[in-house]
Amino acid sequence: MSDKFDVVVIGAGPGGYVAAIRAAQLGLKTACIEKWVNKDGKTVLGGTCLNVGCIPSKVLLEASHKYHEATHDFETFGIEAKDVKMDVKKMVGRKDKIVTQLTGGIAMLFKANGVASYEGTGKLLAGKKVEVTGHDGNTQVLEAENVIIASGSVPVEIPPTPLTEGLIVDSTGALDFTETPARLGVIGGGVIGLELGSVWSRLGSEVTVFEAMDTFLATTDQQIAKEVKKSLTKQGLQIELGARVTASKINGKEVEVTYTDAKGEHNKVFDKLIVCVGRKPYTKGVLADDSGVSLDERGFIYVDDQCRTSVPGVYAIGDVVRGPMLAHKASEEGVTVADLIAGHKAEMNYDAIPGVIYTFPEVASVGKTEEDLKASGVPYKSGVFPFSAIGRAMANNCTEGMVKILAHEETDRVLGMHIFGQNAGEMIHNGVIALEFGSSAEDLALMCFAHPTLSEAVHEAALAVDGHAIHMANRKKR
Q1: Is the pLDDT assigned to residue 400 strictly greater than 70?
Q2: Phi-psi label, residue 127: left if phi above 0, alpha if psi -120 to 50, beta otherwise
């Protein structure tokens, strides 16, 4: 096999593997390098998302939700289910099986599309050459017309809580508990912390979430965030805001955490502690000193709006560059870059990237928050509609939450959509499409939505923007 390629991709996560497949589909000779090794010592594709991130966490979230429904909600539906038990090991085993199926699927897609797969670590050298170091230490150099860096990110560790196997773990370790901890501490009240905290809370853990910031879900529309906090607290999560963890101590099989808040210093003991305070771009060993690629002050690879680095023909995508660390954002950047390399016109709309928190109910958003619009001085109007007035939500026994639509005061163009409720992650794509096509709130209001569905709340919220909601009393518009 020749060591010369049109495209060499470093990293086979959701950005890298998608970029490689797209490039190959466009007729470009493509190679992809991946170093991830699974529990069985085999190199696997899919990166963080498929192996220890998006997919495995959703498997546990779904399983724990079904268990919680069976033990708490079935009676509401007239269903009697006695002595329901959760086999945690079996739950985790199912998670591993699904991960294996999906990562193996990518390997088959590589083969079907003619992508050459290399096992080991990729390093960008000068002149668009890529050094591959295999797991056995042997090296080889690939030559490329174009290189796409998709090396992803890794969890941030903090000095007060050094990881200790079986006791203090990161988000990866929290996916492999073999039993439900009685007392669980979670450092970080963001997406990952709330999702993992929810899993183990539903299974019986007493969960405390420590969030250093004084504001809960600070980047989320705060009308929505307040409802989310109220809901999670009702579910049993103890959320401590303005709580900064300063130290930890291992006492046998327990972890004692020291933290400070507005009331002073406190100590709390847990059986397990999860550290999920964020992620940082992974560039260790990826760039040779003379590669020419520049990093910004936060350690991200510097790129322009089309993911071009400071070196012509070298691109970077996904968690290793600016923007939200989301798998779907990385994938779309991968497609965009592959199209550009093939000579096609391509552009990524960073204003229409949805974000979802997979708690129950889910939290989803796209576009601007009300706080964003206030800060920038954009004139706006809003429409809010509660799920409590939706027949399908009543039938589903899930009436918590709302849909909120923000539109420009003068043009009526949709600027943002925020949803807290069952299936919010599916419904938010109404907002994604609206933003992508420059729709007005009136456009959504004039559409015919199926009845009975949860998405009717989107329709009613669009009507509410101008005070025309049908199934609630409208507030006076300003």
Answers
A1: yes
A2: left
* pLDDT tens for each residue of 341-379: 999 999 999 999 999 999 999 999 999 999 999 999 999
Closest CA to 327 of 31, 17, 120, 119: 17
135 catalytic, yes or no? no
Q: What is the pTM of this model?
A: 0.96
pLDDT at residue 477, as a whole number: 57
Catalytic residue among 72, 135, 266, 451: 451
